[in-house]
Amino acid sequence: MTSNSPATISSKLFAVAKELIPGGVNSPVRAFRNVGGEPFFVRRAKGCRIEDVDGKTYIDYIGSWGPNILGHAPTVITNIIHEVAKDGISFGIPNPFEVEMARTIRDWVPSVQKVRMCNSGTEATMSAIRLARGFTRRDKIVKFDGCYHGHSDSLLVAAGSGALTHGEPDSAGVPKDFAKHTLVLPYNDPAALEAVFAACGEQIAAIIVESYPANAGLVFPRPGFLDLLSSITKKYGALLIFDEVMTGFRLGKAGVQGLENLTPDLSCFGKVIGGGLPVGAFGGRADVMDYLAPIGPVYQAGTLSGNPLAMAAGLAQLRELEKSSGFARLDALGAYFEKGLRALLTAKGIPHRVNRVGSMFCLFFVDRDIINVSDVMQQDLALFKKFFWGCLAKGVYIAPSPYETGFLSLAHSEADLDDTLSVFAEVLAEI
Ligand SMILES: *Cc1c(COP(=O)(O)O)cnc(C)c1O
C-alpha cells in the first residue's frame, strides 16, 4: 500500500531521492517504513495545513514533529526572520538575541539558572550527559527503555535482558564499550531503579529521562515515579536530567517540570524553542553549568550556536505563546479533541486508549493501560496501518508510525478538529 501512484510528482521525486540520499530521506521516520509505503513531498504549508507537490492538502497533526506550535509559517516568525536576516545571518560573535533567549528561558523555567544554546535536541542531551559526567567524575548513566534522547552514542542504547545487565548498542557503529556505561531500565518501575542504585549508585553520573516519554507512544509517569528519580539522584550524588526537548515550551512555560513541580539539575530543550529553525539548549544549576568551557573543564561548542535567526524566531514564537495565552488555548483544543476521539472510538466499539496532555496526544489501538513501552508494543499494527492510509487519502496527516505522539497547534480550530473526527469516523467505518 503506498500513497503515491507512479505518476505523481512525489513518487518521481522519491525515486530520485532514493538514488541520492540513503533511503531517500534525511531522517528515518520520514520514510514511512512503519506503515509500508512512500512519503509525499511538501510544497508549502500554512497554518494547520500542508500542501504536497501534487497539490493535495492535508490537515497536519505533526507540526514538523513538534516545533510548529503556532502552526506552519506564522507571520510573527516569517516577518522576524526577514527582518533579522537583513542585518546578517550568522556572526560567530555574540549577539543580543542570545542574551534575550537565555533570560527568557531562565524566567520561564525556574530550575534553569544558566543555559547554553546549541543546534539540535541531540546536541543538547549529548552535551548534558558529558557535563553530568564531567561534574560528577562518574561514567555511568541511567536511561529508560522507550525513551528517545536523540542519536548520540551513549543514548542509542536498548535494554539488556534484565534490569542490571548493561545496555547493548541500538545501532551499528556504537562501540559496546560506550554502551556498557548506559544502564537501561523499564520506565515506571521503582523497584528496578532502586536495585540499580543499590548495586552501583556511586558510579552513576545521571539519570536522563523524557519528562513525559513521547517517542514510543505517549506514556505518563505513575504517581511518585518522578519524585523518586529526584530523591534517589540526590541521595547518591547523581544528577537528574530532564529531557524536555519535546515537552519544553509546549506544555506550559516551564514544561513538565512546571506541571509536576520538580526541579531537575539539568534540562534539555529544542523543537518549540527554535520556532522551526534548528535549535537546542541545555541548562540548569549554575554550579553545574559553570563546568562548561570556557570557564570549566567540559568542552562543548558550535559554529552556529545562538545564531541570530534561530534566536529571533524562537523568541518570537515564545512571545506569541505568552501574548495569546497560547498554553490555555492549546489545552482546551486538546481536551476537545480527546473527548471527540474517545466518544468516536467507544461508539464504534474499537478497543483503544487515548493519552493526552495539553496539545500532545496519542491514540493506541490496544486494550490495556499504557504503563511502559511493552504495553505500547501490544497495539494492533494492521489496524493502525489501514487507519493511517485511510486518513491520508482523505486529507488528514497523522504520524506515519503508531509510536509517535501527535501535536495540535494554535492554528487548529475546533472546526478543523471536527473535520478530522469526521474523517476518522469515515475511515473506521470503511475498515
Ligand atoms: C526530538 C527529540 C530529541 C532530539 O532532538 P533533535 O533536534 O531531533 O536532535 C531528543 N529528545 C526528545 C525527547 C525528543 O523528542
Question: What order do the helices and strands follow?
Answer: HEEEHHEHEEEHEHEHEHEEHHHEEHHEEH
Give the beta-strand count: 16
Low-confidence stretches: 161-165
**Biggest β-sheet description:** 7 strands, mixed
Q: Tell me the strand order in the biggest sheet.
A: 4-12-11-10-9-5-8
* Number of H- or I-type helical stretches: 14
* Global outline: globular
Overall pLDDT confidence: 95
CATH superfamily of the largest domain: Type I PLP-dependent aspartate aminotransferase-like (Major domain)
Structurally, the number of domains stands at: 2
Helix residue percentage: 25-40%
Overall SS class: alpha/beta
The ligands bound in this entry are: pyridoxal-5'-phosphate
CATH T-level topology of the largest domain: Aspartate Aminotransferase, domain 2
Amino-to-carboxy terminus distance? 14 Å
**Briefly, what CATH class of the largest domain?**
Alpha Beta
Describe this structure in words.
The chain contains 14 helices and 16 strands. The protein is an alpha/beta fold. The protein has two domains: 9-73 and 325-430, Aspartate Aminotransferase, domain 1, CATH 3.90.1150.10; 75-323, Type I PLP-dependent aspartate aminotransferase-like (Major domain) (Aspartate Aminotransferase, domain 2), CATH 3.40.640. A seven-stranded mixed β-sheet has the order 4-12-11-10-9-5-8, sandwiched between helices. A four-stranded mixed β-sheet has the order 1-2-3-15. Strands 13-14-16 form a three-stranded antiparallel β-sheet, with helices on one face. The structure holds pyridoxal-5'-phosphate (PLP). Pyridoxal-5'-phosphate binds at residues 120-122, 125, 148-150, 210, 215, 243, 245-246, 270, 280. Pyridoxal-5'-phosphate is lined by residues 120-122, 125, 148-150, 210, 215, 243, 245-246, 270, 280.
